[in-house]
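Hey, I'm writing a tutorial for new members on how sequence and structure tokens pair up, and I'd like a real worked example in the thread rather than a made-up one. If someone can provide the structure for the chain below, I'll link this post from the tutorial.
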Amino acid sequence: MTQSETASPRLRITEIFASIQGESTRVGLPTVFVRLTGCPLRCSWCDTEYAFQGGENRSIADVCDAVAAHGIRHVCVTGGEPLAQKSCLALLTALSDAGFSVSLETSGALDIAAVDPRVSRIMDLKAPGSGEVARNRWENLAHLAAHDEIKIVLADEADYAWAKAQIALHRLAERCTVLLSPVQGRLDPTLLAEWIVRDRLPVRFQLQLHKILWNDARGR
């Protein structure tokens, strides 16, 4: 291996696979998922704990080649928390330069300011039921653009009340699309839908389509 190859940015990758996008306004689109390894958060409802450790070191060029081999235009970089790896920023730019339509799923706990502006940032706000509400980086709100999205996952009615308050306080729906999701098995999705309609919230209700189709199968 040459010196230039060893010096090139590398990432710890848990998996790369093709599936249907199950969340966000891109729901239903055939998408290649690039799941980075590692996350500094420990949300109570996390469904990707297998990505906390392990994985394989791969170069950005190798990841881009693996994505291109699927022949799908839409790419989602996710985790774990992808921004916990500094080279994630270079990967997002490389994928955008290659002509892919790129989205980033991020926890909202890390700075999103340096993310390539061509990337659609799907940013969480952590409700109290996640156990990580104190990790929300509120400064990120100022960096959101119209093509970005805010996702709030809710475990119970108290989480819903919290989300409703944040939507009003920060005028979130004026910044970008706001998505509300129930934690599977903890909050009845019908109840959440009824609350949204009752309160006329300017949000989009969503279920995790991939879980409906494939339950919790890894790599789907």
